[in-house]
Write a structure and sequence with these properties.
The structure is a single chain. Helix content is 47%, strand content 20%. By secondary structure, it is of the alpha+beta class. Helix 1 (50-59) crosses helix 2 (64-73) and helix 9 (255-268) packs across helix 11 (287-302).
């Protein structure tokens, strides 16, 4: 009923799970990941407890293989389950019960495993495997390539409905909310993988914008402008990113160029002009600079 991939990036140590299913709200069910510990995908006639229990076992020193054996030994219907685990060292263990609905199976490689059940063809998990191996780039994009390959091979025999992706950093900070770098869910959509890819692009853009804000706070406005402009170009449909890129550009002295970027946001929502006043009211932006930007925006509007 589902296809998924669990993986560890051997270069960064990142751990992740990505999944698609003809099932509403798959995100809280299949993917389980904890930085410095491991990742679990639990599916088929799903035993959700395999997720948190698998992570707890690996946190207590079990390898992926030993954790899998413990999970199955304590289950009342293991023949109906499908589950895959990867630990922080990159060891992988996967299981497809003999009563999983065909086509069902899995294929594991170096630090990753692809698994699927109720598929149109028994070539789905192999196609996922090949796509993951052949794709270069960050872990999230490689896992998404595996999901795309599954869908191209026929995917779930029932169709598609939801998708999810979770990625955690390789070096845990002890702050769980910071260690989870990607946590995306598509609960119900006609093309969940397309939506998941769109959300991943947006996430990448906002990650760059967040990094830019830290640079700005540290006083490196020039570097912040560069990153914010990259973020705005990455997701031109997100006008807020253009607004902040424009504001930083104006702070560096290019009021005209900054105003052009801010104008993208104003064109979609005129109240961004008032937002400038609100920022000045709490000293986030110099009042004189705000007046220059607003004058530039008014002049540009007058020329249209």
């Amino acid at each position: 009923m589902t296809y998924s991939i669990v993986a560890r990036d051997k270069d960064t140590g990142e751990l992740g799970v990505a999944v698609q299913s003809h099932y509403f709200h798959v995100g809280p069910v299949v993917p389980w990941v904890l930085a410095g510990v491991g990742a679990v995908a639990t599916q088929s006639h799903v035993n959700i407890s395999f997720g948190p229990l698998g992570l707890e076992l690996m946190k207590n020193g079990y390898t992926a293989e030993h954790a899998l054996k413990a999970l199955l030994a304590g289950d009342d219907r293991p023949e109906m389950r499908q589950v895959a685990l990867v630990d922080a060292a990159g060891s992988v263990a996967a299981y497809t019960g003999p009563k999983c609905i065909p086509a069902a199976g899995h294929k594991s490689g170096d630090g990753f495993s692809c698994q699927a059940n109720l598929m149109e063809k028994d070539t789905v998990w192999g196609a996922m495997f090949d796509a993951y191996v052949a794709t270069r780039g960050p872990l999230a994009e490689r896992m998404l390539a595996a999901l795309d390959a599954a869908e191209a091979e026929g995917g779930d025999i029932r169709g598609r409905q939801s998708a999810a992706m979770v990625v955690v950093r390789g070096n845990p900070s002890g702050r769980v909310w910071e260690d989870k770098t990607i946590d995306l869910r598509v609960d119900d959509a006609p093309e969940p993988l397309k939506e998941l890819r769109r959300l991943l692009r947006i996430k990448r853009a906002y990650t760059s914008d967040d990094a830019a804000e830290r640079l700005e706070v540290a006083g490196d406005v020039a570097a912040a402008v560069k990153l914010r402009t990259e973020a705005a170009n990455m997701a031109p449909d997100l006008v807020e990113l253009s607004f902040w890129a424009g504001l930083d550009t104006a702070k560096l002295g290019d009021v005209e160029g900054g105003s052009r970027l801010i104008a993208r946001a104003v064109a979609e929502e005129p109240r961004w002009v008032e937002a400038l006043n609100r920022l000045a009211a709490v000293d986030w932006v110099d009042r004189e600079l705000v007046e220059k930007i607003q004058a530039q925006l008014a002049a540009t509007a007058g020329r249209r």
